[in-house]
Amino acid sequence: MKKIGILHGKESSFPEAFVERVNSKNVKGVQAERALVEELMQGEPTPYAVMIDRISQDVPFYRAYLKNAALNGTAVLNNPFWWSADEKFFNNCLSTKVGVPVPRTILLPSKEMPPDTSAQSFRNLKYPLDWEKMIEYLGGFPLFMKPHSGGGWKNVYKIHNYDEFFRDYNETNTLVMLLQEAIEFDSYFRCYCLGGKYVRIMDYEPRNPHHLRYVADHKASKALLDQMHDYVLRLNHALGYDFNTVEFAIRDGIPYAIDFCNPAPDADINSVGEENFEWVVEHAAKMAIEKALSHVEGGNNLTWGTYVRDAAAGHLPVNPDAGEAKAKKASGKASKAKK
Predict the structure, then answer these.
(1) SS3 content of the chain, % helix, strand, coil (to 5)
(2) By percentage, how much of the chain surpasses pLDDT 90?
């Protein structure tokens, strides 16, 4: 029996529906359940061929548990080793190498020194940083500032001038922050990507209250939908995520990837709506069953992105296309117009 476990926290609607959907398909030799984490002895396997991880980003014990499970052959979705290493600034850097437009972005050191460090720990860091140079590179205000790691719209600031920047930056304590060009968008989309092949492009309005963000109808053209579909696959193949979302802000017809480091994306029926919920339950079940049927006992059943695989082979992930060049050109024009 190939067992599929789902590891989750407070959420209920998606995990319960996922387990029911997998089992309703009556695939011979495959069964799903809510994962039970028992005593963890080093190097010992878990009873699961496949595990979907919805909570280890908040529970370090679970992350270590999943790494041990993967070592013993469990197909953990998403790869716990890569998830531990990844963050939003790297995502943006990688996108520049695979030809997906992104807002111009700068990484800021934390305002406060991390625990167990002192001024001597930062002797390699230029001081003071040239704030004007960085903000000029970003095209001027308004800007967004948000943590380079984490999600859920926490500690996100929209900044309109230097006074707001320094005020908000002073509140961030030891968080490492991104400072990012604000894409004043015409429309916005959020896209599920499962199994590196199943894509759901959803109309989204981040300016609405949380429970109304999926209540939108942006009337996207087929060409734009096809381009976003391509970019979603391109990013997730490079990163190696089995379960992720990509957000696009559309400015002057160009889709800019805003956030695509969401390995435990919202899938609650009360926020994503019934149609999107039905899609993600069905395709998550299909993905998990496919993983269970192809599972190799005791083997390495993790998904590794092309970036890691190419890096191991000594290749750089360079695949620029006209879309990125077009985005840079448009961004430059917008910056000049502001001035």
Answers:
(1) 40, 20, 45
(2) 86
